[in-house]
Specification:
By secondary structure, the chain is α/β, with parallel strands linked by helices. The protein is built from 9 helices and 13 strands.
Length: 294
């Protein structure tokens, strides 16, 4: 019996990669289907070899987190790649994504690209103030690549970015020795229109793995996360220290008297931009009925 990591899932077959770098093509035991357990890329598991080059996944080890779309487990971080120009950042999209990650217990780092074309302000300040690690990178000059690499050490990293954010160029800059030809990096990890039909982990050459994930538009929120409006404030981590200070229990942190979150925003301690996103998401969540979450 060996322990490994599911690095590929396609057509009911799973590629399991072991710490020594060896791989085994496996099927899941029938008990997983019986118990309606879906095996995901990123899952750690125990495998029994059944024949030469083939195996059976016998046990799923505990998950620390997972995403439904894209289907992936045990992320050590979500790296959000954001271009500062062409296209410009979209605050609501970024804040929805950080809320999903917070809901799932997934750490987030921001990498802003195209610093040779535009200033990183105010974006870098907004997300640093919210507590997220931030790196500023020029894919043209290479400036900031060491800072970005330091945020991505070890473990499993999923990269997400809108079309044109410079994700493929960033990956080429950070991982020149990636165990894939350059063309495949662009095709698999950095395409503008993402048509990959499966999720896969690729070794980064430094003991970690990179996750092939769809762009922002393919990640569901709201119904898929089974959230209500009352859950949202906990998905903005910078609000957590202020929530207990609100005058009234059940404060929605929109415009109530005695709301410590709103007071902190007025005092410049919390981002007004982030709060605008919070209000927009809150209104969307209010429209979801309880029965839709079942």
């Amino acid at each position: 019996m060996r322990e490994g990591l599911i690095t590929r899932s396609l057509g009911g077959f799973y590629t399991v990669t072991f710490p020594d770098g060896s791989r085994l093509e496996c099927r899941g035991r029938g008990v997983f289907r019986k118990e309606r357990v879906t095996l995901l890329v990123g899952d750690r598991c125990r495998v029994e070899e059944t024949e030469e080059g083939r195996g059976s996944i016998t046990e799923l080890l505990p998950r620390k987190n997972f995403l439904a779309r894209p289907p992936i487990a045990n992320l050590d971080r979500l790296a959000i790649v954001v271009s500062l120009e062409s296209p410009a950042p979209n605050a609501l999209v970024l804040d929805e994504l950080t809320a999903i990650a917070a809901r799932r217990g997934i750490p987030v780092v921001f990498i802003f690209t195209k610093t040779d074309l535009a200033s990183a302000e105010p974006w870098s300040t907004i997300y640093r103030q919210a507590g997220y690690p931030v790196a500023l990178v020029s894919n043209v000059t290479g400036e900031g690549k060491e800072e970005a690499a330091a945020l991505l050490q070890g473990g499993v990293t999923a990269f997400s970015g809108n079309s044109g954010a410079g994700k493929s160029s960033l990956l080429n800059l950070l991982y020149p020795d990636l165990a894939l030809p350059t063309g495949e990096i662009s095709e698999k990890l950095g395409r503008g229109r993402h048509t990959t039909r499966h999720v896969e982990l690729y070794p980064d050459g430094r003991g970690g793995f990179l996750a092939d994930t769809p762009g922002f538009s393919a990640i569901e929120f709201k119904k898929s996360e089974r959230m209500t409006a009352a859950d949202l404030a906990e998905c903005f981590p910078e609000y957590r220290e202020y929530i207990p200070r609100c005058r009234f229990t059940g404060c929605s942190h929109r415009n109530e008297q005695g709301c410590a979150v709103c007071e902190a925003i007025r005092a410049g301690k919390l981002s007004e931009s982030r709060h605008k996103s919070y209000l927009a998401i809150y209104e969307e969540l209010r429209d979801i009925k309880e029965w839709e979450l079942k």
